[in-house]
Specification:
- The protein is mainly alpha-helical and 89 residues long.
- The protein contains 3 helices and no strands.
- The protein has a domain of 62 residues.
- The longest helix is centred in the first third of the chain and has 27 residues.
- The chain is elongated.
- The relative contact order is 0.16.
């Protein structure tokens, strides 16, 4: 079970990281963007590490205080969820 959870978290974080990268590239080219709620969804589904890494690496969405706050909330919820899963297994 732990193996599958680890694989899930690796995949969701990679997806989140790539989505932020794609959104940043589209922002630079003034093209269609990925909706913020979609980016947040990947964070809440476990991709906060990928989201935060991409935000810091690409300087993407870091000036939007509300976006950063929601990402931080997602991080806290992910920490509690992982802790809860870890203590039950």
């Amino acid at each position: 079970m732990i193996k599958y959870l680890a694989i899930y978290f690796i995949i969701i974080n990679l997806i989140s990281f790539v989505m932020f990268y794609v959104d940043k590239q589209k922002a630079r080219k003034d093209k269609w963007r990925i909706e913020e709620k979609t980016l947040h969804l990947t964070s809440f589904l476990g991709g906060t590490i990928g989201s935060i890494a991409a935000m810091l690496l690409f300087h993407h969405k870091t000036r939007k205080a509300g976006f950063v706050a929601i990402t931080f909330i997602a991080l806290l919820l992910n920490i509690f969820a992982i802790y809860g899963l870890y203590t039950r297994l």
